[in-house]
Amino acid sequence: MQLLVNIDHVATLRNARGEGYPDPVKAAAVCEKAGAAGIVFHLRGDRRHIRDDDVYALKESVTGSLDFEMAASEEMLDISTEINPHLVTLVPESREELTTEGGLRMEKVFDDFQQRVFPRFRETDIRISLFIDPNREDIELAGELGTDMIELHTGTYANAETEEARRHELRRLKEGAVLAHELGMEVNAGHGLNLDNLGPLVETVPHLNDISIGHALVSSALYDGLETTVKKFLNIMRGG
Ligand SMILES: CC(=O)[C@@H](O)[C@H](O)COP(=O)(O)O
Ligand SMILES: NCC(=O)COP(=O)(O)O
Predict the structure, then answer these.
(1) What ipTM is given for this predicted complex?
(2) Which residues participate in 3-amino-2-oxopropyl phosphate binding (predicted)?
(3) Which end of the chain is more exposed for a tag (fewer CB within 10 A), N or C?
(4) Quick one: which ligand is closest to 192's CA?
């Protein structure tokens, strides 16, 4: 299991004033030095945080795994195949949302991904991850499509308001991870994870590979510093 830090919201802060700082590239380097195995960014169609220049600079500077999150638009297919990250994570995206609101509806995207999207990546070394909810149907369709990995959407777990709902979501994530593993896919997880909900997730859900964490980690770093915060998250992942 390894931590990939999503640095989108370092760019959000930078863009608030347009002064060029804080610099997502510099933040990524601090995260990697502190022990993160790689960096995630989501280049949105509206460029609200990460921008094209950041993507090229991150490709040059990140030494570990680089996870390019994106909608499966032609524009993003062109940029990602030029950048050649280690993996792309395909996510649903809408302009109105504050953040990604759920996983891909596999039934809806299956034909398009099979005919248009996967062939583009299969001409490259880029590995494909699909961001999906822990539903049997979605996971089985992801397997049928032949994706290398899935990223289980942990947002419903993270937002659960009662202990019962939290336990229910953890059970769904566990069953989803087991099924994906049985079907031969690697299992990543992310969205809404923080210093409180990460521990129960990693204790309960098997087969986890990349865990991507952004908003809560960047927010905690305002209090404790980026290096210390990355180490705190890593400590939880190591059972501390
Ligand atoms: C896929 C996912 O869960 C998040 O990485 C999300 O897409 C990040 O986007 P924002 O940073 O814009 O919330
Ligand atoms: N893939 C999830 C991610 O990169 C980070 O999501 P969040 O921690 O910002 O919600």
Answers:
(1) 0.95
(2) 6, 17, 192, 214-215
(3) C
(4) 2
Instruction: Give the distance (Å) from ligand 1 centre to CA of residue 191.
Output: 7
Helix (H) or strand (E) holding 223: helix 215-224
b (16+ CB within 10 A) / e for 179-190: bbeeeebbbbbb
192 lines ligand 2 (CB under 6 A): yes
Whether the full predicted model's pTM is greater than 0.95, yes or no, is yes
Q: Which ligand 1 atom sits nearest the alpha carbon of residue 155?
A: 3
For the CA of 151, the closest atom of ligand 2 is: 1
| DSSP run (H or E) holding 171 | helix 163-182
> What residues does each domain of the chain span?
2-237
Output helix, strand, coil percentages for the chain, rounded to the nearest 5.
Answer: 50, 20, 30
What is the spatial distance between Cα 21 and Cα 195, in angstroms, rounded to a whole number? 26
Residue type, 88: V
- Give me 199's structure tokens: 């521990």
Under DSSP, the state recorded for 116 is I
CATH number of 2-237, picked from 3.40.1350.10, 3.20.20.70, 3.30.565.10, 3.40.50.2300: 3.20.20.70
Q: Is 99 annotated as a binding residue?
A: yes
Question: 44 alpha carbon to ligand 2 midpoint, in Å?
Answer: 13
> Could you give the residue numbers annotated as active site?
42, 69, 191
The residue behind tokens 């991870």 is: 177
How many angstroms separate the CA atoms of 208 and 202, rounded?
8
